[in-house]
Amino acid sequence: MVSLIITSVMAMSLVMAGSYVAFTTLQSSQKVSEGQRSSAQMWQLAALIQANLRPVRGDGVLYPPAPAVDQDGRTSLPVWLAPDAKTPWGAPYGYCVYAATPQAVDPAIATAPYPYAGAPGAHEYAITAPALPAALAGRDIVALVLAPSAKSEKAARCDDVMLDQGQPGLTGGGQVVTVGQRATSDLAALSASARVERFVTATPVGNATGTNLANGMSLEAALGFWLAARPNTMVLHLASGRHVLGPAVLTALGDDTHAPVGGRLVLAAFENGNPVVAAVSAGAVLKIPGDLRIDGVGFEGIGLEAPPAPGWS
């Protein structure tokens, strides 16, 4: 009887030990999986930042988008560029910007709009910023994307950046991806394949970021975003309704000085709806300085100068 009890206890111990090993193995594999997903997302974000460096001062220097700053002084990606950019475990990605030239070094970040003040979709760029940390001095870096360790729920601080075996790292653990004025082959490849989608409603709703239909942005804001950001492909899902464009955005799109040619734009009806694009002024012309595809969107009293570009989606 005693031997039976001992045998049963030993069997239960083996089962429990096996279960514990399986559980810890599952946890470890989950952390690895989250880390891999986070790394892939960081490279995509870095490519998006790289694609949005802009010659704000007209001096041939490319400046990074200005960061958002929370109440604790932590900096993250601006909402217009990457809405709700978070790690797989829910922490915001940190975003650090640095002086694009030695003359632009300043402890405080100063910003200027691009393409120009008052332009539809104009966004702020960091024209002055802190110098690179001493450990990274001399490298072609204007921005960093940071992911904290898997146990952290807050964005990593720029002050935590250090050198780990010759590569940028974080004192508390985590991941760092760099962005320079000269794109690496990896970032260039990602930028070339960047695809951004936004949802457009006749009037802005929710937080108007365009991330979904409940937070739809106006067509004017969406076109301004496309003009400033220029991802390789941008798809605008237009909900049913009359989307009216004012003269300011039409002028900005038609101004070759502020509208570099390039970037594909798709105007598509959302869920087989009946959106119509119109203009405040009769006889206005919508000029798209890039490839354009139209799918199920009507036009009322407004001309169009960009022919559809067949053969891609």
Describe this structure in words.
It is a single chain. By secondary structure, this protein is α/β, with parallel strands linked by helices. The protein has 2 domains: 54-188, no CATH class; 193-304, no CATH class. The protein contains 4 helices and 18 strands. The protein has a 4-stranded parallel beta sheet with strand order 10-11-13-16, with helices on one face. A 3-stranded antiparallel beta sheet has the order 3-6-9, covered by helices on one side.
Chain-wise SSE layout:
Blueprint: H1 2-51, E1 68-69, E2 75-76, E3 94-97, E4 110-114, E5 123-128, E6 143-148, E7 161-164, E8 167-170, E9 174-179, H2 185-192, E10 195-200, H3 219-229, E11 233-238, E12 241-245, H4 247-254, E13 264-269, E14 275-279, E15 284-286, E16 291-295, E17 298-300, E18 302-304
Parallel strand pairs: 10-11, 11-13, 12-14, 13-16, 14-17, 15-18
Antiparallel strand pairs: 1-2, 3-6, 4-5, 6-9, 7-8
Summarize the model shown.
The protein has 313 residues and is an alpha/beta fold. It has 4 helices and 18 strands. The strands form 7 sheets. A 4-stranded parallel β-sheet has the order 10-11-13-16, with helices on one face. A 3-stranded antiparallel β-sheet has the order 3-6-9, with helices on one face. A 3-stranded parallel β-sheet has the order 12-14-17.
